Amino acid sequence: MQPTLVPIDEFTRLLTSKCQALFGPRLLYLGLSGSYARGEATGESDIDIHLILDELALTDLDDYRALLQEIPHGEKVCGFVGDAAALAAWPAHEMFQFTMGSRTLSGSLEGIAPSFGEPDIRASIRIAASGLYHMAGHRYLFEGGDGNYEGLKLAYKTACFALQELWFLQSGQYIPRKEDLAGCFSGLYRAVIERYLHWEADRDALSPYALTRLLFDCARQLLQEVDGDESAR
Question: Which residues is 30 bridged to in the sheet?
Answer without folding.
Answer: 51, 106
